[in-house]
Amino acid sequence: MNRAVDPRTQRLLEAPIVPTLLRLAAPNVLVMVAQASVGLIETYFVGKLGTDALAGMALVFPIVMLMQMTSAGAMGGGIASSIARALGARRRDDADSLVFHAIAIAIGFGLLFMFALLIGGRWLYALMGGTGASLDAALTYSHVVFAGAVLVWIFNSLAAVIRGTGNMAVPANVTVAGVVVLVPLSPLLIFGWGPIPGLGIAGGAVALLVYYLGGSIALWTYLRSERSLLKPSWAKARFRWPLFSDILRIGLVGSVSTVATNLSIGIATALSGHFGPGAIAGYGTASRLEYLLVPLVFGLGAPLVAMVGTCIGAGQRERALRATWAGAAIAFALSGSIGLVAALFPRPWLMLFGSDPAMLEAGSQYLRAVGPFYGFFGLGLVLYFASQGAGRLLWPVMGNIARLIVAGLGGWLALRWGGALVHVFVMQGVALVVYGVVIASAIAGGAWFGRVGWPRTTSSLLRRFQPS
Question: N or C, which end of the chain has less CB nearby within 10 Å?
Answer without folding.
Answer: C
